Amino acid sequence: MMNACTDSLWPSSRAGARLTVDLGAIASNYRYLQTLAAGASCAAVVKADAYGLGIERVAPVLEQAGAREFFVAHVDEGIRLRSVVSEKARITVLHGPRPDAAAECVQYGLRPVLNSLDQVAVWRSEAVKTGRSLEAALQVDSGMSRFGLSGSDLDVLHEDGRLMDGLNVSLVMSHLACADTPEHSANNAQKQQLLKMSARLPSAPLSLSASSGIFLGPDFHLDVVRPGAALYGIAPNQTGPNPLSAVVRLQAHVLQIRDIFPGEGVGYGMTYRPDQPRKIATVAVGYADGFSRHGAGQGCAWFEDICLPILGRVSMDSLIVDISDVPEGRLRADMMVDLIGSRRSVDDVAEAAGTIGYEVLTSLGHRFYREYVGNGESLQKGD
After folding, report:
1. pLDDT of 287-334, one tens digit each?
2. What distance in Å separates the CA atoms of residue 330 and residue 337, rounded to the nearest whole number?
3. pLDDT tens, 360-372?
């Protein structure tokens, strides 16, 4: 039987919905990715509050599963993470050192990713100030035109070697733009560009692949892989069944059940009008909870093995589903329906909304009663 603990601002009786996070599934996904990328070090990306699932809960489980390197986006995320992982864990800040936060990077043992000559200068200045060599990762722009040193930036570094004084470069990295499209020619082009550019930099381990890149095969694993979304069950691509374990389940309370008749309007704008009598239920999740208003008509909830189409527009705090196919009396007010679960994945919800699983997961709100399962005894302390 799985252990369960909660992390909510209010009891379940006061929340409209329950979000269940399976920490055991996250650990299982990590171990699967670690095996898939055997030969490379498998880091864990826990930015954006571990993709919205709670960094204080998720990061210790990943460390127990074997993760020794973690990536976050911002310095404050790194500081928050430092308090919940061991001193041995390496924390890398993808957005680099802000000038007024460089000292805190040193204080909390955070390794910044240097994406520009300005950031190189900030980190070099901090090394001079502290009188010691400071660890850093360097990112190069291999073709995505988002982050990283350009070819002309590398020319500047070559012309004046003193610009790198005091920097201990322990990683050279880049990021794939089209990894979720395995056949895209940009993938190999970016890999070749990384290899070419890294040859002009201090010798260090190389990293190119995040979640989807891992599934491109060993040629893309290099020395370090950086899975993020895959840890949380999001499919790496659309080429086949998702090999990852589902991590979240979202259940919402039924607030009210009513019968409607042909021609009666449903929801804002009355965009849905039935052509025959229907039984509908109002459910306590809305766009304020991260459940997108866009594409709602393509979505559904589930009750047991019965699909419940979403009708009309999603409101801020509620949505309406068609329960006409549920046998009379089986579904009652205050019972729960599934919006994300075994029959409808995060990626399914994203497709209906015209977005990606990443956005759905990171948008899930904080009004839910949150329950963590599969977490083991060590996380029960203090609950």
Report:
1. 999 998 887 778 999 999 999 999 999 999 999 999 999 999 999 999
2. 12
3. 999 998 899 999 9
As a whole number of angstroms, the distance between CA 157 and CA 117 comes to 8
287 belongs to the catalytic site:
no
> Which one of 88, 129, 196, 268 is the catalytic residue?
268
CB 168 within 8 A of CB 134: yes
Residue 260 amino acid letter = I
Helix locations, the chain, DSSP H: 23-36, 47-51, 55-65, 75-82, 102-107, 117-130, 151-159, 185-198, 211-214, 346-353, 357-363
Q: Please tell me whether residue 14 adopts helix, strand or coil conformation.
A: helix
CA dist 17 → 104, 105, 247, 370 (Å):
38, 38, 17, 9
Catalytic hit among 30, 32, 47, 191:
47
**Tokens 């970016």 correspond to what residue?**
190
Q: What is the pTM of this model?
A: 0.93
Among 380, 338, 374, 157, smallest CA distance to 251 is for 338
Active-site residue, 268 included: yes
